Amino acid sequence: MEVLATPAVSPSLATPPDCPARLAGVLEPLVGPCPQQCRLRCVRLEPREPFPESWSHSYAFGLVRRGVLLRGRPNACGAMTLVDAVGAGSLLPLGGCASSGIAAGRALVCLATHATVEHARERGVGVDRDLVRLQSLALTRLERILDARARPSAEASVAALLATLADTLQPQRRRQVLPSSLQQRDMAALLGLRHETVCRALGSLEARGLLQRTSDGIALRDVEGLAHLAH
Question: What is the pTM of this model?
Fold first, then answer.
């Protein structure tokens, strides 16, 4: 994990265009009008790097700035079960078991300390309202992933997951390509399926013309078709 320093820029410069709060249109009091006034801590994670243990008690939440983070929960055997895939502009819930996970590929995360959030709340600047909105989007994403797991066949489950990721991985826009950093093994773990099963299902969906596997990732040719097949 690498903590990135705030760049030395003129206060007149606008917040960077990939600022996750700006992408989601939320939490303006925390990010301020320019990078020098941002109260979030930007952290870089390397591919497959686990979330630091300190996140569970040091931070109230995170916002994904770049990349995809895979959230998990420890199961009865102590291993991590993946439950969520969080993309740019989305809330990363933190605290207790919710703080387990790994970065799918290289990622940037903007983290808010408990003190920062409490200070904003005391000033009455609407942070709670924005957090409720972000949490609602996160809950919808989790519900759709859970629904994909419950489909009657592996092909239907994979199709439902792909449609879910297209719609929710980056909530400000529908993704037409899922990045290669999101591996087939990750999808299998999210669905509770074997990697080989997911690979066969993707091959079948590709043969139907619904997607194309490339070196850049999975190009979704027909998201509506995937969603229809899922039902």
Answer: 0.89
